[in-house]
Write a structure and sequence with these properties.
Length: 185
């Protein structure tokens, strides 16, 4: 519920203040076009890679992208959220809302998940050397590639492919928001 509230603040602010949403369907060399697309592609890629390596409720996954970062699905989702927040209206408000989302929703969820995994897999957790929670360690990329166990079936089962809809959904949402803003104005 808190996530929905934080996500809805951005377009509400845009409609109330006449802030201008970015146009991700009209290519331009601006940061407001390139950065969101880079974040979206990164987010979808990381979520897909993570979901393809995840063996949910079977083990503490420690292969592929899970060598680089402890919570790749959250990292991918956060990259998508950051793209959203930076494009819907005022980037400063987007950064603030993103910080709230990380601090109030995602970080506590990560801690809770780690506690659950410690309880569910105590023997495996005892020997587990966890990577960083949110910021990937690029020095471990070679190891991540060597240990990769990506399976399309796992990516599908863990909803990794679903995130690709964001690549179409956000640009269309921004166009609709711009249209709505022009109607309201």
């Amino acid at each position: 519920m808190l996530t929905a509230l934080i996500v809805l603040i951005a377009p509400a602010h845009t409609l109330l203040t006449s802030a201008t949403p970015a146009d991700l369907l009209d290519p331009s060399p601006s940061v407001r076009f390139i950065l969101p697309w880079a974040l979206m592609l990164l987010g979808v890629g990381v979520r897909l890679w993570g979901s393809g390596n995840l063996r949910k409720n079977q083990e503490i996954t420690a292969s592929g992208v899970y060598i680089l970062v402890r919570h790749p699905l959250y990292v991918g989702s956060l990259a998508l959220f950051l793209a959203y927040f930076l494009t819907v209206g005022e980037p400063w408000l987007g950064c603030l809302l993103f910080a709230f989302l990380v601090g109030l929703v995602y970080y506590p969820t990560m801690l809770s998940e780690e506690e659950y995994l410690t309880f569910k897999f105590p023997k495996q957790f005892a020997g587990y050397d966890p990577p960083p929670r949110l910021l990937p360690d690029p020095r471990r990329l070679g190891e991540a590639l060597r240990t990769d166990r990506f399976e399309t079936r796992s990516a599908y089962r863990n909803l990794g492919f679903r995130s690709a809809w964001f690549l179409l959904g956000l640009p269309l949402f921004l166009r609709a928001l711009s249209w709505l803003e022009s109607v309201v104005a």
